[in-house]
Design brief:
It is built from twelve helices and 19 strands. The strands form four sheets. Strands 1, 2, 3, 4, 5, 16, 17, 18 and 19 form a nine-stranded mixed β-sheet that branches. A five-stranded parallel β-sheet has the order 9-10-13-14-15. A three-stranded parallel β-sheet has the order 6-7-8. Helix 4 packs across helix 6. The model has no long low-confidence stretch (mean pLDDT 98).
Length: 425
C-alpha cells in the first residue's frame, strides 16, 4: 500500500503539521516528518477533516442506471470529500430484502471509492402496508442498521410503531420521510405566498411537522431510535427541540439546499428547483441554520437525488423531485457556516458516522486513527459546471454558481481516491 506524507496541513484549523499515512491509518503526526518511501502531498494552505459521511444518498442502482450507478455516485462522493455514504432503498427492485442490500453493498466494495452502506426499506415495496425483512437485512453481509421508505412516509402509525419496536433488537434506526400524504395530494411546492402567486398547489409545513410530532411520541413510548430525514420547516425545529429536551432518542438532518435556497426559486418554473420536501421560506432557512449550529439538527445530509434528463427537463408538474448534492455539500456548508471546522466535522462526519454505526469513520486525523480523511482548500472558489460533475445526472441547482472551497484530496483507509482535485480511479 502506498504511504503518503501530507506536509504543513492544518488539522481542523489548528497550526500546520505533517501527517504520515501508512497501512491504512494515520501513523504519525508532527512537524518535520520524513518518510523517503512516501508520496508527498503539499498541504500548505489546506485543512484536513475527517472523511465526510452522508446519511442520505440515492445511488439509483439497481434499476435506474441511466440516472446514476453505485460507481458514478461513489466517484461523485469521493470528489465531494466523502469516505462513506448510506444508499437509500428506493431502487428498482426496492432494497427490501437481504439479496438487494447485499447487491448494493458489493457494488460499493467493487467500486472502492467510498464505503457504501445500504439503507433497507421499512415496508415491502415502499408500499406502507407490511414490514419488510428487517431482521434478514440486519443479519446480511451488508449489516443494515438504518431503515427508511424515503420518498414515501410510513404513514400508518401502527406500522411505524412495529418498525420502531423491531429495530430495537439490533440497535437499529427508522429514518422517516415526514410527510402526511393526505395533506400533500397534488402539492407542487411550499404552501405560501409564492405558490399562490404562481398558481401551484401548496405543500403545507404542517404535513411535515405533524408526522414528526407523532413519531417522536411513538419513539418515546417504545424507547427506540428515530431519525428524521430532510427537516425543512421552523415548526419541525420546534418539535425536535421539545423532543430532545425530554430525552427522546431522535436525531435529524438538514440538506444543503434547505439551508440556502428559498421557494422564490420556483418563480422561474425551472424543475431543477423541484424537490421533496419543497424549498421553504427565508424564515425557515434561518431557523434551520440556528438549529444546525445548536445541535437540534444533528447533521447535514445531501439527499443526493440524480435524475435522467427526461425526468427533469420537462414541465414542472411532471418533473421528478430531487437535486444533486454530493459534489457541492461541503461548499454549501462553508458558505452557510463559515470556516467553523470543528462544527463542520461534527455535522458532516462524526455525528453521521455515530448515527449510522460506521465505526471506521468520523475520526479526526490523529495517530492510530483510520486514514479516512479529506483535504480542502478553503481559499479556493469554484464555479459549478454541470458537465464537469462526476454524477451521471446534471440536475444541480448550483449550476454556474461560484462557491467557496475545493476538495483537493480524499483518502479511504489510506488509499487516495482523489488527488489534486481529480478522481484517482
Amino acid at each position: 500500500m502506498t504511504a503518503y506524507l501530507i506536509t504543513n496541513v492544518s488539522v481542523l484549523g489548528a497550526a500546520p503539521t505533517d501527517l504520515l499515512i501508512r497501512d491504512g491509518v494515520v501513523a504519525e503526526t508532527g512537524t518535520g516528518l520524513a518518510a523517503p518511501d512516501a508520496v508527498v502531498v503539499n498541504g500548505t494552505g489546506l485543512v484536513a477533516l475527517p472523511g465526510l459521511v452522508d446519511l442520505h444518498t440515492h445511488l439509483r442502482e439497481p434499476g435506474r442506471e441511466d440516472a446514476e450507478t453505485v460507481e458514478t455516485g461513489s466517484r461523485a462522493a469521493a470528489l465531494g470529500g466523502y469516505t462513506a455514504v448510506c444508499a437509500m432503498a428506493n431502487t428498482s427492485p426496492v432494497a427490501d430484502t437481504a439479496g438487494v442490500v447485499e447487491q448494493v453493498w458489493r457494488l460499493g466494495r467493487e467500486a472502492g471509492l467510498v464505503d457504501v452502506q445500504p439503507i433497507g426499506a421499512v415496508t415491502v415495496g415502499l408500499a406502507g402496508e407490511r414490514l419488510a425483512e428487517l431482521g434478514a437485512m440486519a443479519d446480511s453481509a451488508a449489516r443494515v442498521r438504518i431503515f427508511s421508505d424515503d420518498g414515501h412516509c410510513v404513514a400508518d402509525p401502527r406500522l411505524m410503531r412495529r418498525a420502531l419496536e423491531y429495530v430495537k433488537a439490533f440497535d437499529g434506526i427508522v429514518a422517516q420521510h415526514a410527510e402526511e400524504p393526505r395533506l400533500t395530494e397534488g402539492a407542487q411546492m411550499h404552501e405560501g405566498e409564492v405558490a399562490t402567486r404562481l398558481g401551484l398547489t401548496g405543500w403545507p409545513a404542517v404535513a411535515e411537522e405533524a408526522i414528526i410530532a407523532r413519531d417522536v411520541l411513538l419513539a418515546e413510548h417504545v424507547g427506540s431510535r428515530l431519525h428524521v430525514c430532510h427537516v425543512s420547516t421552523a415548526g419541525s425545529v420546534g418539535v425536535l427541540r421539545q423532543a430532545k429536551a425530554r430525552g427522546v432518542q431522535v436525531t435529524a438532518e438538514v440538506t444543503p439546499h434547505h439551508l440556502l435556497l428559498t421557494d422564490e426559486k420556483a418563480a422561474t418554473y425551472d424543475p431543477v428547483y423541484k424537490v421533496n420536501p419543497p424549498l421553504r421560506t427565508a424564515a425557515d432557512i434561518a431557523a434551520l441554520r440556528t438549529a444546525l449550529a445548536e445541535g437540534i439538527i444533528d447533521i447535514v445530509a445531501t439527499d443526493h437525488a440524480p435524475h435522467a434528463v427526461e425526468d427533469k427537463e420537462c414541465e414542472w408538474a411532471y418533473a421528478r423531485p430531487g437535486m444533486l448534492g454530493l459534489e457541492t455539500a461541503l461548499s454549501i456548508a462553508l458558505d452557510v457556516l463559515g470556516p467553523q471546522w470543528d462544527l463542520i466535522a461534527e455535522r458532516m462526519s462524526r455525528a453521521p458516522a455515530r448515527i449510522a454505526g460506521l465505526a471506521e469513520h468520523g475520526h479526526d486525523p490523529a495517530p492510530g486513527a483510520p486514514a479516512n480523511l479529506t483535504l480542502v482548500d478553503p481559499a479556493a472558489r469554484r464555479t459549478v459546471e454541470p458537465t464537469e460533475l462526476a454524477s451521471r445526472s446534471r440536475n444541480t441547482p448550483y449550476a454556474r454558481m461560484t462557491l467557496p472551497g475545493r476538495i483537493v484530496a480524499t483518502f479511504l483507509r489510506g488509499v487516495a481516491t482523489v488527488l489534486d482535485g481529480k478522481a484517482v480511479q
